[in-house]
Amino acid sequence: MPIEKIKRNYRKTKYILYKETLVDFKEHFWAFLGSFIGIGLMAYMQSKTLLHSDVVFLIGSFGASSVLVYGAIQSPLSQPRNLVGGHLVSAIVGVTVAKFAPDILWISAPLAVSFSIVLMQATKTLHPPGGATALIAIIGSPKITMLGYWYVLYPVLSGVLILLIVALIFNNMTANRSYPNHKKYHIIRKRITDKFRNSSS
């Protein structure tokens, strides 16, 4: 029954939000550290390659992704598939719309966001900051809009991979934190860790 499924998903979401918002100073510490290092790495790369006026590495949607990936790590919307897929799908949509309707902002902006939502839903990669990634391809600085489809690889894919790698490290530093919430990943990770331990001993 669809209603039962909706109720079950609602209860699950309510539990995840409750769990993620409990006052736990250790959790807050790791969330802070992970987001600080993830965004910090991108800012460092930015400062070494481009002028401050041409901020390409740091797009606004990465800040929103950090909230999910480091602060709500059990949320279905913060999982690697959603993080990477959501941004990539949205970036491709944003650039494509910008090419077909570059000068009609009142059409291109809503089209980019709306198409990105539908495609993220269709590909099961829904990630709310993806909407902003699509929008930035339309309303970003000339430096961003001139990138064309390179925008998908740089800064979107490069930035997302930095966030993901940092999340995989810092979201698994303690027994209480486990990211992603896919069990297969942790089984494979345990096997690899055990192999390294056995080979070094």
Amount of beta strand: under 5%
Shape: globular
Category from helices, strands and their pairing: mainly alpha
Number of strand segments: 0
Explain what this protein looks like in three dimensions.
By secondary structure, the chain is mainly alpha-helical. It contains nine helices and no strands. The chain is globular. It starts with a helix and ends with a helix. The model has no long low-confidence stretch (mean pLDDT 85).
Brief overview:
With 201 residues, the protein is mainly α. Helix content is 74%, strand content 0%. It contains nine helices and no strands.
Helix/strand layout:
Layout: H1 2-20, H2 25-49, H3 61-71, H4 80-100, H5 105-122, H6 129-139, H7 142-145, H8 150-170, H9 183-200
What labels describe this entry?
single chain; 201 residues; mainly alpha; 0% strand; globular
